[in-house]
């Protein structure tokens, strides 16, 4: 059970701790350890400021156990209550002692945990807390999975884990992380107490956890047209977990108050109940109807209005922020409905960093404001869990979040693994269920991506149990078993899929959970992780370790190496910019037919690496950043060439005497129609002052639509000027404001 601590009296234990390294990790059996003894002399131990991922410190890329110790006193304002020590996040195995008393063990890298230390501490004296943090390498075997004709040494060819036993998702095994897809793909440890450590005080009878579920009020119009209609109310149902530590049965009063948080309005109070609370843990249901409810919307469809729920039991109360909304996945079509309205998700995959202790509100605010500027309305977190404040900011700003449980590739399907993962996915659900921004879940990133012939049966074993477990925490949202089933698809043209893939013969699914391509960061960034003597000519083993993926770059994307490092960087960044732009256009032209959502892989690189982000690890932009920003607008004019095969990201060449032709599309994600919109297109040669052809016309852009607006046809004369040509397109509203501008470059020979 995740215990909530918001609003409690707390005292931080963040700051300077003593530490000592120990090779390997052995689970503690509760017996006193020399390092765990309060009287142990740690005077010669070095010091480290917590929280942190120790990779970022003098410890570096260490796999094993780190012991942490510090002394503390209990502040006077916490005395007289139940006292807990709370760890926000410790990666990966944690054992904790206070004053020689073994408190317990915890496994995980994202889920908070705590221990009751009321009867262990000396309220007026000196206390010693010890944390044993074990983050060893996973013992799985790595096997070469691809045998390719390339210049890479054997250890740097693509390797795959047989059966990972640790539940860490991206933080242990993914493409774009230290070691990449080589034999060394666990490098770059995320170990450490990377979340805050606090003392938390609670009364003897306290509210430990609340889960909030909302419904939009619906009522049949019995006196009118007999249809079911929203009645303007919101139905709020709360499961409150109450803990009675008195050792006696307590008769208590409980009630629920709903108060507007982001707007002015009256509070609603009710749900009063008289409870008989036996010693221990009880779950109480409180229900309250909110009149004239303000709904939570994504920023582009309304206001992300929030409420505060205050649950009072006995002499305690707990506040939780939430939004009144309903998000529905239509299983037949794969489309999304928010508060009964069909919406299109212009999404982004996101990870703060390989080392989550680097996350803070300043960094997230900078990223999220840029996403708003790019008109992104949905974020997919996979496969890790961000700190809680990130989701709070998404609540406030109006981003819909698709959360993926931290399982990425090649994990075990053993009974033991399923049991441990189920406990953690329950924790994830309890951590995030109340966030208004949380829209949908996935229990596994890619459960069937295995290149070895003997595949674990994760989809039909692990994923099913995880879905059932998460459903007991959140029975209201859609729970996806894992990519790439149930209408979810990866289409990274020139990234994971071949750059010459014929898109007109490709079956497209509703959820494009990954699109995009790889690239090389700017030279300034490249020099921060590749030694100068390995840069040019490239030492391919070093480059592969840092994320180049030789086969994908030169056989899939077919990027030209060029004659210099600067030329190679420009070639790859230019290819990424063009192929991502054209992927966006392709998917937006298929809005609702069948595409319902699309998520670029990734916002920023999670570590210093040759990645696939819009921004690199240092938040320096790739060339693709501006290209994507230009076409991720809510209104988009785009062009679909008449070509077979239909290939994205390549040079477009036409011969004199042939025909340049295709469809002009306008996609409108706005909830209102644009009457009197002006659509224009023209073709110019090079820097010519006059177009060779073009057309301007007016019409209505229907709300929330995609339509073919025109056919573009140019019969290229036999004596046409050879060289570069550009098709430019634009859409303006009735008042002359530009809604979208776009272009397509091609060559005439």
From TrEMBL:
<feature type="domain" description="Glycoside hydrolase family 2 immunoglobulin-like beta-sandwich">
    <location>
        <begin position="229"/>
        <end position="324"/>
    </location>
</feature>
<dbReference type="InterPro" id="IPR036156">
    <property type="entry name" value="Beta-gal/glucu_dom_sf"/>
</dbReference>
<keyword id="KW-0378">Hydrolase</keyword>
<protein>
    <submittedName>
        <fullName>Glycoside hydrolase family 2 protein</fullName>
    </submittedName>
</protein>
<dbReference type="InterPro" id="IPR006104">
    <property type="entry name" value="Glyco_hydro_2_N"/>
</dbReference>
<dbReference type="Pfam" id="PF02836">
    <property type="entry name" value="Glyco_hydro_2_C"/>
</dbReference>
<feature type="domain" description="Glycosyl hydrolases family 2 sugar binding">
    <location>
        <begin position="31"/>
        <end position="130"/>
    </location>
</feature>
<keyword id="KW-0326">Glycosidase</keyword>
<comment type="similarity">
    <text>Belongs to the glycosyl hydrolase 2 family.</text>
</comment>
<dbReference type="InterPro" id="IPR013783">
    <property type="entry name" value="Ig-like_fold"/>
</dbReference>
<dbReference type="InterPro" id="IPR051913">
    <property type="entry name" value="GH2_Domain-Containing"/>
</dbReference>
<dbReference type="InterPro" id="IPR017853">
    <property type="entry name" value="GH"/>
</dbReference>
<dbReference type="Pfam" id="PF00703">
    <property type="entry name" value="Glyco_hydro_2"/>
</dbReference>
<feature type="domain" description="Glycoside hydrolase family 2 catalytic">
    <location>
        <begin position="334"/>
        <end position="482"/>
    </location>
</feature>
<dbReference type="Pfam" id="PF02837">
    <property type="entry name" value="Glyco_hydro_2_N"/>
</dbReference>
<dbReference type="GO" id="GO:0016787">
    <property type="term" value="F:hydrolase activity"/>
</dbReference>
<dbReference type="InterPro" id="IPR006102">
    <property type="entry name" value="Ig-like_GH2"/>
</dbReference>
<dbReference type="InterPro" id="IPR008979">
    <property type="entry name" value="Galactose-bd-like_sf"/>
</dbReference>
<dbReference type="InterPro" id="IPR006103">
    <property type="entry name" value="Glyco_hydro_2_cat"/>
</dbReference>
